[in-house]
Write a structure and sequence with these properties.
With 456 residues, the chain is of the alpha+beta class. Helices cover 34% and strands 21% of the residues. The chain has 12 helices and 16 strands. It binds ligand BES and manganese (II) ion (2 copies).
């Protein structure tokens, strides 16, 4: 096994500078005003890969472009497909950032910027490990394919289509993704399960314009009143979702899984303190880790309508709406849920108000079997990078395309997360711990060697 330590030590500064370059590009996929920046991020990634002498292609889609690259085939060794994303979430609320979101800033061992951990920093570890192999060994010990997209944060629709049409080109034995978290500081983890998601916008329309709430209130259905009632009907006091059939296909937690979760050193009080809440909440009968990792949930992401500015204004708003989502667990089908949800809400939409339910995106949950033949190779690589063996966890977030990899390519995903739960992903002051950036690169260097020796 080649020794990368000297090389990696030498390149620390340069790799961090490269990361900062990418972090300066405001590649917000959700907001079309930033589309040219998403493209710039794609070009930046493509350029990095071109320097590694890979065959690189910038792929145009109906939405944002994506980048595909491959190294030469290595007979007898498995093929690894690295997936990641260069798009980021919107940076708002801007006034809560200590340093501006697209001016990467080092503070107390972290790099602060939107996308630092999700996913630019994590994704880059695999490009840098390939660079380490090429520059020290002149070659990789296995074929690596890179598929890096710009629509992950908005549901991966273009990639979903591309995957179906390019199964041969993308053929691989295993998928490698770093877009999740460790179990805690200096506690590396391999994630074997992610939740899915079903995301909606509900729009309610009442009178043709806003009304005086004194003159008309009580005689006209208020869309904001109707909205709160309809949303409240989606979940009961026990945290059970009320949409008919919602739980029909849920894969229940097995007793072994519950034992494994319970055996993890999870500190509820510290978790509560970290979030600044005076109590935790969730579905009755489940622990916090079970609620976060393996049970479906309902959350309102945003709610709008009526007067929001300073002072009191008496008004009966003409419109009200909300964006909300369910997190799903394996075997739940977002399409089935959409149908049932539509009927359930229509039944509860009162006279005097009309509703529109927009199905924004959906993806099922996913599990990587713990006996996947590449799992132990990954565990060894993580241990070499971080000096500690990983624990096996699930996570509550979603990476929509992972199930497609399983279904379309027949390849399981190794979710090797280098982030932390307190990285402030999707929130102000996102950060990535720089030691973990470098340990991630080292782990990835070892991963190529370990995977190349795995025969199935
Ligand atoms: N990297 C996250 C997914 C994630 C978050 C995994 C936390 C594990 C823990 C990803 O970029 C993400 O944010 N996904 C979205 C998916 C959605 C927009 C379709 C999510 O989970 O909200
Ligand atoms: Mn991500
Ligand atoms: Mn994200």
């Amino acid at each position: 096994m080649p020794d990368f330590d000297v090389y990696l030590e030498d390149r620390r500064q340069q790799f961090e500078e490269d990361l900062c370059d990418l972090l300066r590009i405001p590649s917000v996929s959700a907001d079309r005003r930033f589309a040219p920046d998403v493209r710039r991020a794609a070009e930046w990634v493509a350029e990095q890969l071109r320097h590694l002498e890979l065959k690189v292609e910038l792929i145009e889609t109906a939405g944002h472009p994506m980048v595909y690259a491959e190294s030469p085939p290595v007979p007898g060794a498995p093929v690894a497909l690295v997936y990641g994303h260069f798009d980021v979430q919107p940076p708002d609320p801007l006034d809560q950032w200590i340093s501006p979101p697209f001016e990467p800033t080092r503070r107390d061992g972290n790099i602060y910027a939107r996308g630092a951990t999700d996913d630019k920093g994590q994704m880059l570890t695999h490009l840098k490990s390939v660079q380490a192999w090429i520059e020290t060994q002149g070659r990789l010990p296995l074929q690596v394919k890179f598929l890096i997209e710009g629509e992950e944060e908005v549901g991966s629709q273009s990639l979903h289509t591309f995957l179906k049409e390019n199964r041969e080109r993308l053929a691989c034995d295993v998928v490698v993704i770093s877009d999740t978290s460790m179990f805690g500081r200096d506690r590396p983890a391999i994630t074997y399960g992610l939740r899915g998601i079903a995301y909606y916008e509900l729009r309610l329309t009442g009178p043709k314009q806003d009304l005086h709430s004194g003159t008309f209130g009580g005689a006209v259905m208020n869309p904001a009143n109707a909205l709160t009632k309809m949303l409240a009907a989606l979940i009961d006091d026990q945290g059970r979702i009320q949409v008919p059939g919602f739980y029909d296909d849920v894969t229940p937690l097995t007793p072994q899984e519950r034992e494994q979760f319970a055996a993890l050193p999870f500190d509820e009080a510290a978790f509560q303190r970290q979030l600044g809440v005076n109590a935790l909440a969730g579905e009755a009968g489940y622990t916090t880790l079970e609620r976060r990792w393996a049970r479906p949930t309902f959350d309102i992401n945003g709610i709008f309508g009526g007067y929001q500015a300073e002072g009191a204004k008496t008004v009966l708003p003409a419109k009200a709406g909300a964006k909300f989502s369910f997190r799903l667990v394996p075997n739940q089908d977002p399409k089935k849920i959409s149908q049932s949800l539509q009927a359930y809400l229509e039944k509860r939409c009162p006279p005097g108000v009309t509703m529109e339910l927009i199905d924004m995106h959906g993806a099922p949950g996913v599990r990587t079997p713990l006996d996947c033949p590449y799992m132990s190779a990954a565990a060894r690589a993580v241990e070499r990078g971080f000096g500690q063996a990983p624990v096996f966890i699930c996570e509550g977030g979603s990476i929509p395309i992972v199930l497609d990899f399983q279904q379309q390519l027949g390849a399981d995903a190794l979710l090797l997360g280098w982030g932390l739960d307190d990285d402030n992903t999707h929130s102000p002051n996102e950060k990535f711990r720089l030691v973990d950036f470098h340990r991630g690169i080292k782990a990835s260097c070892h991963l190529w060697e370990e995977l190349s020796r795995t025969t199935v």
